From TrEMBL:
Biased composition regions of type Low complexity, renumbered to the chain: 1-16
Alphabetized UniProt keyword annotations: Membrane, Transmembrane, Transmembrane helix
Protein name, entry field: Protein tipE
Transmembrane region(s): 51-76
Protein's UniProt keywords contain Transmembrane helix: yes
Length: 231
């Protein structure tokens, strides 16, 4: 009878060989966790490094795409338009032939100046000028004959900008107000005869037209709107 009991419980004999009161669990003082090897630590570091690097590069790429799409209508397209327009490096002579302060959307299908390039305006200044394609001389007499008349006059090639750089009320007062000069410098396009602007900075043209860099900056300094710059 005693022999059968011993044969039925071999595990008891195995458990009895362990020291009394000692356990192999994590809470035991005798428990020693296996320490990772140097290779395991390096592999773990490189895995985390690749993960965070991929995450940063992916986020940067997405932000760059959105920034590029956002800047196309504000920087890329105006720069291309300015290059294609080929504005003259030396200002011509202009004189206001008509100034209308219009209201409602139907009357503001175009405007000489808009404060904001993405929104429609219900009030606008529409200025037309006569143009003489000859160098402007400060204090010189008005031309007896004009090369073109009643041309649309814009503040810059886009006809728009953002405050405080662009203030349409000040622009209209400076060129068509009671104290505005009878003639003033303006810049016309060689490829678009109907395009006349108050400011047009084309550094590529100036680099070819002036002997020194200091001279080439003279016209560009007149332009306070960086969206007009080609480069």
């Amino acid at each position: 009878m005693s022999r059968s009991r011993a044969s039925l419980s071999p595990a008891a004999s195995e458990r009895s060989t362990l020291p009394m009161g000692e356990s192999a669990g994590p809470g035991s003082p005798a428990f020693k966790p296996l320490e990772p090897t140097r290779e395991q630590l390096l592999n773990h570091f490189f895995e985390r490094f690749k993960f965070y690097t991929s995450l940063c590069l992916g986020t940067s790429a997405i932000l760059a795409v959105f920034a590029f799409l956002f800047l196309i209508p504000f920087v890329v397209e105006p720069a291309v338009q300015t290059i294609l327009a080929e504005f003259v490096p030396e200002a011509g002579v202009c004189s206001v032939s008509e100034h209308v302060h219009a209201e409602t959307l139907t009357n503001c299908t175009w405007a000489s100046c808009r404060e904001g390039c993405t929104t429609a305006h219900t009030k606008c200044h529409k200025i037309r000028v006569n143009l003489a394609r000859r160098p402007f001389v400060e204090g010189g007499p008005a031309p007896a004959e004009w090369d073109a008349t009643d041309l649309r006059f814009l503040i810059n090639p886009e006809g728009c900008g953002y405050p405080p750089r662009v203030n349409c009320s000040v622009f209209a007062s400076d060129y068509a107000g009671p104290k505005a000069p009878k003639t003033f410098p303006c810049y016309y396009s060689l490829t678009r005869p109907d395009l006349v602007v108050a400011r047009a900075c084309n550094r590529r043209v100036h680099a070819e037209s002036f002997a020194s860099k200091e001279d080439s900056k003279l016209l560009c300094e007149l332009d306070e709107d960086p969206s007009d710059d080609v480069f």
